[in-house]
Amino acid sequence: MKAIGIVGSPRKGGNTEILTKHTLKAIEEEGLDTELIRLAGLDIRPCDACMVCHNEEQCPIDDDLFPLYTKMKEAEAIILASPVYFGSATALLKALMERTGYMSGSRRPFAGKVGGPLVVARRAGQNFTFAQIMYWFHILGFFMPGSSYWNIAFGREKGEVSEDEEGLRTAWNFGKNIAFLVKKLKT
Which CATH class is domain 2-186? Predict the structure, then answer.
């Protein structure tokens, strides 16, 4: 059983990555394999609405997305994590969400998987970003466990998220709930 955490921040080693690693550690403690995937440095282009994916499970855009899509299909749990950029998820993460969503289409390879969002904000925009990512999970048929609060933490400069005790605790509990639900669904 595997859980992957996809970090949509273009900044390596930043707050979103720190929070995602923290959540994955909680999942690992429960016996699941985990993998952190950074979108930073990858070539993930936006959807161009060619609609090839409606007929075939592929995308003609030649970039780094399809191997990620394959990993996502193989995992039992997926976390999508993003910092807030101008009140929204990053363009990198939105491109991944749009294209994997379209490619999955009526095939519904994510239905019945477990997942949910993680969001890091400096000050504002976290609720919209959280909902934006959560809607992706919802429309694709994921089961989304809750936590002790919304899966949001605060920090601007690298490492500041580590000072948000409530945010860390919420992310930890989210990870524990992901592992619990994956195990329940697999037994």
Answer: alpha beta
